[in-house]
Amino acid sequence: MTLTGRCLCGQVTYTLEGDPLVTAVCHCDHCQRQSGGAFSVNLVARETQFAVNGSLTTWGDPGDDPTGTVHVERKFCGNCGSPIISVPTGRDGVVIVKAGTLDDHSVVSPTVEVWCVDRQPWVTMPELAVSKDRE
Ligand SMILES: [Zn+2]
Ligand SMILES: [Zn+2]
pTM score, two decimals? Predict the structure, then answer.
């Protein structure tokens, strides 16, 4: 399976080869702020599965680390601002693709939710295999 996706303005497109390792909903505060939505939906894949066309702008996200150490590089279209991928700095070779940017959403089926501690009170999820207060 080859999935394709793009940012809102179309300057950034990408392909994702093969199945994602896992599909996860993230309720964390930073995903809410970056997306402007209530949560993010993420396809976790190997870096080798992902290929991008166009240039991404990077913001180094320290999470809530008081030392300011970057834990996730959040990469987005510098023209329209759509978040495309996040790259965790501690886990080599993994990319997290923002599922809202896929061309075909019919393949998206989350099995994991994380950072439920930050979940907005009105959000109810279907029963997922894994549910964690934090990540
Ligand atoms: Zn764009
Ligand atoms: Zn998050």
Answer: 0.93
